[in-house]
Amino acid sequence: MAEAFQARDKLAFLLSLVPWLMEHDGASVQSAAEHFGVSVDQIRDAVQLIAVSGVPGETDSYQHEDLFDINWDAFEERDEIVLTNLVAIDDSPRFSAREAAALIAGLQYLSSLPENADRASISTLMSKLSRGASAEPSQMAVEGGQTDAALASTLALIRQSVDTGVQLELDYLTSAGDRERRRVDPLRVESFDDDWYLRGWCHLREAVRTFRLDRISNAVITDAPIEHHADDVRLPDRLFEASPDDLEVTIEVAVAAMPLIADYIPDGAVSETHGDRIRTTLRVSHFHGLKRLLASMAGMATVVAPPSARAAVAAWAEAGAARYR
Amino acid sequence: MSPSSAGMRIPVEERLFSLVLALLATEAGLTKNEILSTVQGYRQRFRSGGDNANLERQFERDKDDIRDLGVPLETLESPGDAGNNQNLRYRIPRGAYELPHDISFSHQETVLLNLAARVWREGSLSGESRRALLKLRSLGMTADEPMLGYAPRVRLRDASFDPLSSALDRHLLVKFPYLKPGEGEAREREVIPLALVQYQGRWHLCAEETGFGAQLAGERKMFLLRRIVGAVRTGAAAPDRPGDHAAEALDDLEKIWQHSVAEIEVNVATDAATRLANRRGTEELSRSADGVTAHLRLHFVDVAILADELAGFGPEVFVLSPKELRTAVVDRLTRTASDHG
After folding, report:
1. B116 touches chain A (CB under 8 A)
2. Are B270 and B313 in contact (CB under 8 A)?
3. Which of A49, A167, B56, B125 has the largest count of CB atoms under 10 Å?
4. How many CA atoms lie within 13 A of A73 on its CB side?
5. pTM summary value
6. How far is B14 from chain A (nearest CA, A)?
7. CA closest to B157 among chain A residues
8. Looking at this predicted complex, what is its ipTM?
9. Out of B70, B129, B201, closest to residue A94 by CB
10. Residue A1 has pLDDT above 60, yes or no
11. How many CA atoms lie within 13 Å of A17's alpha carbon, on the beta-carbon side?
12. B323 touches chain A (CB under 8 A)
């Protein structure tokens, strides 16, 4: 199966590369690699394969005129790609139904960003993708453009802060319940489904921090210039970095609920399956986040150890239940 | 596959590429026999007058792979010889293969499409969008990085997504065990899949109940993928159901969301107040005289999911209505407290 996928990617690459080479006579291997976002070796391998490929032809025996050909001297001595004979392919291929559907659904999702609020141009683009597909795009859609006004205005302020190069000031409520005024140099906006995050340099903490957009309020543009730019700061891949002060908590989770906690499981954590439950380890910076997470997964997940974590979750849920008595 | 029949092994991509070139170059089409005996990658293993069953199966798989890439591989019956499989002819019509000439993408559109492709990082759609970008780059447009980086992602964590989306494309019936909230055991469902939609961060399958053993036949239903608790199996060919089901499904969910309202009380200084106020559609109806609590009205689609969310806020939230939601939240909090007692 893995090989089949690889071969499909390679075929899509070959069918895409040929028309580009036709339009870019004498392109360097380097420029082709940059354009397609692949290695120079991948380009060289593909060009060598194209150069000996073709159609069976009238004689059914792949005669010289039935094959693509390249200027081998230019290729081998100067790393330049010059096609000297062309067969069968004239133009770029259409998108498949699923490829078009993936891009269309991606665009629907992006229309929640305020700068993509121009519906007309997004829908023009979607219809181009539809027309450019070899079959009707798959029935798939993602809700988009329904962003809450508060979230949209925070996103717009972040954009303005970066465009004008000034810091953003905002109220941030931590999961521990502390509200603090922070000044931030925005670096990147990230999202998972409906959850939006700002990653930025926090001047209060003097470090890169991740802020949930729905925990931000009273954001304003300041007149202090931004000190840290996206190009200068290496952002860790994970939204929430592990810290040596993190607490380890052992929990038991229903197999079906594992995806809900995947973000909290550190790399290399040992998971054991007990029937339809999995016992694994979470890392949390404090119990405030843990008690909220566990209370939202009643019956699906239980803290096993340490006892202090169990007590924190029990107290949180009990305090909630007590309000109804 | 036997090494004796192939002097040198032809890589898979060379065989597939040669097949596409050969079928693009033919007007009249090629028969299977012509393909197997002449096209690079097959001809090396072809046994004239012998048994080519393995090679024929290879060709069947290759056809599927090529079609999955969006290459319109056509089958023609020979005139006067309909129904004879050996005389079927295969070709790729140029007009259906090539991107129409009037389709081009501006610089700004290319930037947007690159970002749209990066929305998918998991599951089969990451491969689809990777291949879509290759085709886009084929047209020559490049996209530079915007000043403020965006990394928007849609998750595909439900194990049932890939098999359902593949069944949807192949127009097949599907069966799966579905666990409704409040029911102790999952029930087996057989449906005609119509669309997959993500609404408020959750994937839903819009489907039609089949007629087998159900008085619900013909009724359109929405299934939450996270409640599909076992393997998805495909069945017979599904009857044709034309229409824009994806858009209709999103409209249906939006209507349910509009009509379903909950009223709650929150302590204003808490995480619950901040996050619920930032949720689409939340209205603050009133605030207590001392300013400590706010009375909010929220919209929702699914009582059980809203109950999970609200239970997470513990004592920060007090549910006023509907009663069903209130009961569900109390049950959850009581359960969590006793599981950890």
Report:
1. yes
2. yes
3. B125
4. 0
5. 0.88
6. 7
7. A259
8. 0.89
9. B70
10. no
11. 30
12. no
